[in-house]
């Protein structure tokens, strides 16, 4: 991986000087007018045209042509404008005496004005959670696997631009949307009553994205894992060749720079979906952040509902209830209504074995002798020092548990050694398994598929690896407690903690 910045990127940027200069308003008006004309495909402009355009904005007072000429030279000195001599005929003596020039925006200034134009439209984080980008990425990666190094001229670069544009847009939109949920404006909005009307739609939107992410994104992860280094290098070489074949009038990037840029882009793509052994994938983090956003929205709605219920006046209900009690004729009916309205009062539950003197069913509870229970006092006064008790020993329990664990480890060790003897074996080639062996094998597969390396190391140092089958490959796993149709995984057990490559 190359450095994230080059020495050339550390230079000062004088092209930004006009944004903080004393006469910033005049410079901004001139640059915006020249940029608008550039978008209209008018590139070289005369000072008189720029002056008239700046005056027509209506934001500059007492602005003269001489001031405009001075501003243009300042912008030229900072590298925002390039100039050339105007070879047209002069229509007056003043034009003839004055040095005539035409001005053009430099590439840096074009990007600066684009950035400023985009900043003026920023209203919060924005962003969105769209699952259609996952479908585009999956289609592009599938095309890479199908065509390999047989792309026609221009197709590889077109596929890469479509793939990376969808990936970049999806990532930026998702990051912005999740950030907007945690912004101060969102916190304030979630505390208002109007949020309850939005809550259901927002939760459904987030849940739809999580379902689409789980359905499509993990399929992309599997496809990327099947693109080997050789296929990747051949594909990126074709894309680099297509980029170099494009005619350019200016000096562009070298072949090595283009190859390195494409390779780094592929690394970013794979790290986002697959991750590495040192850190989880961005895909996993996005799924977790989305689920946390759903929980946050639900918690905010519950708090609002509780606050609304807590602030409601119960006076009318209590008055109606009081009239109902006043209309009753007997105390027994009042007890029934009280039990229906208020329910049981808080009770205390005491555990223990009752010492009953008789088993007769017709004996009342009140006829039984009381069971004495000692209740610890809640007084803050220091209790009298009680007699010391001997330390309890749990040696027998620990020994029994240790024997149980050792037996389980022995069974697992025997199963590992038996699987190691099979070598790389498919699910369909396994013999009849016991119920515990089937559970242990499914546990292995679950742990391997959850890891980015598709492997894990047991406590005894054995490496368990799983090779993913094609989507249509299935097999029958036979065990004593039944049969299971499942993907035809390849299970491999190695000794010494070697990671599967």
Account of the protein in words:
α7 (155-181) packs parallel to α12 (282-310). β4 and β5 (463-467) form a beta hairpin. The strands form three sheets. This protein has a four-stranded antiparallel beta sheet. The protein is of the alpha+beta class and 501 residues long. The protein has three domains: 9-120, Arc Repressor Mutant, subunit A, CATH 1.10.10; 132-305, no CATH class; 415-494, no CATH class. It has 16 helices and eight strands. The chain has helices at residues 24-39, 47-56, 65-78, 93-97, 107-120, 132-147, 155-181, 184-190, 195-225, 229-245, 255-273, 282-310, 315-327, 331-342, 395-422, 435-450; strands at residues 81-85, 101-105, 425-426, 455-457, 463-467, 474-479, 482-487, 490-494. Helix content is 55%, strand content 7%.
Describe the secondary-structure layout:
Blueprint: H1 24-39, H2 47-56, H3 65-78, E1 81-85, H4 93-97, E2 101-105, H5 107-120, H6 132-147, H7 155-181, H8 184-190, H9 195-225, H10 229-245, H11 255-273, H12 282-310, H13 315-327, H14 331-342, H15 395-422, E3 425-426, H16 435-450, E4 455-457, E5 463-467, E6 474-479, E7 482-487, E8 490-494
Antiparallel strand pairs: 1-2, 3-8, 4-5, 5-8, 6-7
Question: Which labels suit this protein?
Answer:
flat; alpha+beta; two-stranded antiparallel sheet; 501 residues; 16 helices; four-stranded antiparallel β-sheet; Arc Repressor Mutant, subunit A; 55% helix; 8 strands; disordered C terminus; 7% strand; 3 domains
């Amino acid at each position: 991986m190359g450095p994230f910045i080059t020495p050339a990127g550390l230079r000062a940027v004088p092209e930004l000087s006009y944004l903080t200069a004393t006469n910033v308003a005049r410079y901004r008006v001139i640059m915006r007018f020249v940029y608008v004309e550039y978008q209209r495909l008018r590139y070289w402009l005369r000072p008189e045209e720029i002056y008239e355009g700046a005056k027509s904005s209506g934001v500059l007072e007492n602005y003269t042509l001489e001031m405009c000429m001075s501003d243009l030279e300042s912008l030229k000195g900072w590298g925002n404008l390039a100039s050339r001599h105007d070879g047209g005929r002069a229509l007056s003596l003043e034009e003839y005496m004055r040095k005539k020039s035409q001005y053009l925006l430099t590439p840096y200034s074009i990007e600066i004005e684009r950035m400023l134009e985009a900043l003026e439209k920023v209203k919060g984080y924005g962003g969105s959670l769209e699952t259609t980008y996952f479908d585009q990425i999956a289609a592009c990666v599938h095309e890479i696997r199908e065509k390999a190094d047989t792309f026609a001229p221009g197709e590889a670069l077109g596929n890469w631009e479509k793939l990376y544009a969808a990936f970049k847009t999806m990532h930026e939109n998702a990051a912005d949307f999740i950030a907007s949920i945690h912004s101060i404006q969102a916190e304030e909005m979630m505390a208002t009553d109007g949020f309850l009307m939005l809550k259901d739609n927002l939760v459904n939107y987030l849940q739809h994205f999580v379902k689409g992410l789980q359905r499509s994104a993990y399929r992309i992860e599997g496809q990327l894992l099947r693109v080997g280094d050789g296929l990747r290098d051949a594909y990126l070489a074709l894309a680099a060749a297509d980029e170099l074949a494009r005619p350019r009038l200016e000096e562009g990037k070298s072949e090595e720079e283009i190859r390195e840029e494409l390779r780094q882009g592929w690394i970013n793509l794979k790290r986002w979906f697959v991750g590495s052994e040192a850190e989880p994938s961005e895909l996993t983090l996005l799924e977790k952040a989305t689920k946390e956003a759903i929980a946050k929205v639900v918690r905010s709605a519950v708090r609002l509902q509780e606050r609304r219920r807590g602030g409601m006046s119960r006076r009318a209900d209590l008055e109606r209830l009081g009239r109902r009690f006043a209309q009753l004729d007997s105390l027994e009916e009042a007890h029934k209504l009280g039990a229906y309205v208020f329910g049981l009062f808080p009770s205390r539950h005491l555990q223990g074995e009752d010492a009953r003197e008789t088993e007769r069913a017709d004996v009342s509870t009140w006829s039984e002798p009381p069971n004495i229970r000692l209740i610890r006092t809640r007084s803050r006064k220091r209790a009298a020092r009680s007699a010391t008790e001997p330390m309890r020993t749990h040696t027998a329990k620990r020994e029994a548990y240790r024997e149980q664990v050792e037996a389980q480890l022995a069974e697992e060790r025997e199963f590992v050694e038996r699987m190691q003897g099979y070598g790389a074996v498919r699910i369909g080639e396994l013999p009849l398994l016991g119920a515990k062996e089937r559970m242990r094998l499914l546990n292995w597969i679950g742990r391997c598929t959850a890891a980015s390396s598709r492997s894990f190391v047991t406590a005894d140092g054995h490496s368990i690896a799983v090779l993913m089958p094609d989507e249509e490959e299935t097999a029958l796993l036979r065990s004593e407690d039944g049969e299971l149709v499942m993907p035809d995984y390849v299970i491999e057990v190695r000794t010494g903690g070697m990671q599967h490559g």
